[in-house]
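Entry 12.
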Amino acid sequence: MSHWQRYVFWFASPARAHVLAQRLSAPLMWLAAALLLPGLWLGFVSTPADAVQGEGYRIIYLHVPASWMAMFSYALMAVWHATGLIWNTRVSHLMAHALAPTGAVFALLSLVTGALWGQPMWGTWWVWDARLTSSLLLLFLYIGYLFLLHAYDTTTRADKGCALLCLLSVVNLPIIYFSVRWWNTLHQGATIRAEGASMAAPMLAALLLMTLAAWAYTASTALRRFRQLLQEREAHTQWLGDLTNGESRVD
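Predicted 3D structure (tokens):
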């Protein structure tokens, strides 16, 4: 058995997963705040204006992390659903459900900030090019997922229905990422590549801080939401009653 499988089965226990989520959610939120504040200062105060785009380029410090997190969250949802289907772990599906609302918010923020960036840079709020259209589709997929989650009368059917939707539609993510290479679009290419970043070091530092803050925030909110979903599903179990009363220990 691989280390990954050991971790999966160890934390497949609802009690262990609940305790882990409880311990990590608050520190991750503090980490998000600690990363966000210097990121905002660097991005919107300290770094100079861009030579071509002027002050308007600063929207990237919101737009890029939001876009990355919207895609990453959906990919992670697919991983959790695949784990749940392969090993029949209920908590895996709940982790996917917990990620969906935050991922949807970031998908919406990505589109809004992209429009605010596009209007002064391109002279239009919206164009139906490959990158923007596939990003809009991602938002619709999040919305459809959330509707589907509440459309079934049993949690088992909801888990499997959402898993099927997520795993089939995850193909949209490489389309979003590679769209600027595969088709002629208004959207600019990647700023950070394997060979390096085409931006000044302070700008890159600000972007990375904002991205890490978005990651920590996503993890914290997802774990907090996971605990709520788990408590709803396990409301009548012995372990949750013991844990609530402070009598349970997770070994």
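Annotation: The CA atoms of residues 55 and 194 lie 27 Å apart. The longest helix spans residues 14-46.
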